[in-house]
Specification:
- The protein has 2 domains: about 90 residues, Rossmann fold; about 120 residues, Rossmann fold.
- The protein contains 10 helices and 11 strands.
- The strands form 3 sheets. A 6-stranded parallel sheet has the order 1-11-8-7-5-6. A 3-stranded parallel sheet has the order 3-2-4, with helices on both faces.
- Strand 5, helix 7 and strand 6 form a beta-alpha-beta unit.
């Protein structure tokens, strides 16, 4: 019987630990403030932003919300980011992606101060991760590591295959698994014999953005499967990149969708906000 990795439960544990830290910081006169910028009103983005605000409230972090029109120019957005960079009361800055087509996402990410880059997307954060130095870790890959650690799943010496090479998940995920002494293979759209490569994995991490793509034919008997994808199926139900029902009897542990990786992303964002203050003290 597969062990179902409960991301909701683990995320709640992390937020409770952070709440205690924030309470202590508050008693010491230290406040933590996260600025969240949303451009336009993409429904999925609005849900994410709402969830981030709720998490901030629970943990005890102040959140400032900047809801800008879809027509906002790049100059206006960069000006706001630079003002927040200069504001000593702001500890973290988060610009909700995706942004409208008139705005260069890379330029916006680079404009956020690396000391306030709680999403972990700034080139300086990514560079620090790649050479094993301290810095903000991208929230979703950081959440996956915590899921594995807190579920008692060893990574050292294990063969890890990551399907997907995005800057936000696949690449930082590979670096973090290397940091945990796993042997890592990153697959992508040009990988030959993807099924055979995936079947080597003791830990298979899937982040490709294709609903129900990975079936039991991709999975070694007894592997651990982490599903980073989130979609709606033909019946409008949430599903992941992995065909959960098909692989369930085949694995030793698996994350469900919803309730697996998703809640961890926000818990790790809260963790980065707390680190923004504790690092600078």
């Amino acid at each position: 019987m597969a062990f179902i990795i409960d991301g909701k439960k683990i995320a709640a544990e992390i937020k409770d630990e952070l709440k205690q830290k924030v309470t202590k910081l508050t008693e010491d006169g230290v406040a933590i403030t996260l600025a969240v910028i949303q451009v336009g009103n993409d429904p999925a983005s609005s849900v994410y932003v709402g969830n981030k605000k709720k998490a901030c409230e629970y943990v005890g972090i102040n959140s400032l919300s900047y809801e800008l029109a879809e027509s906002t120019t790049q100059e206006e957005l960069l000006s706001l980011v630079e003002a927040l960079n200069a504001d000593a009361k702001i500890n973290g800055i988060l610009v909700q992606l995706p942004l409208p087509s008139q705005i260069d996402e890379d330029l916006v990410i680079k404009t956020i101060s690396p000391t306030k880059d709680v999403d972990g997307f700034h080139p300086q954060s990514v560079g620090a991760l790649s050479i094993g130095q301290k810095g903000f870790i991208s929230c979703t890959p950081g959440g996956v590591i915590q899921l594995l650690k807190r579920s008692g799943i060893p990574m050292e010496g294990k063969e890890c295959v990551i399907i997907g090479r995005s800057n936000i998940v696949g690449k930082p995920m590979a670096l973090l698994m290397l940091r945990e002494n796993a042997t890592v293979t990153v697959c992508h759209s040009r990988t030959k014999n993807l099924m055979e490569v995936a079947k080597r994995a003791d830990i298979l991490i899937v982040a490709i953005g294709k609903p129900l793509f990975v079936t039991k034919d991709f999975v070694k008997e007894g592997a651990v499967v982490i599903d980073v994808g989130i979609h709606r199926d033909a019946e409008n139900k949430l599903c992941g990149d992995v065909d959960y029902q098909d692989v369930l009897e085949h694995v030793s542990a698996i994350t469900p969708v919803p309730g697996g990786v998703g809640p961890m992303t926000i818990a790790m964002l809260m963790n980065n906000c707390v680190e923004a203050v504790t690092k600078s003290k």
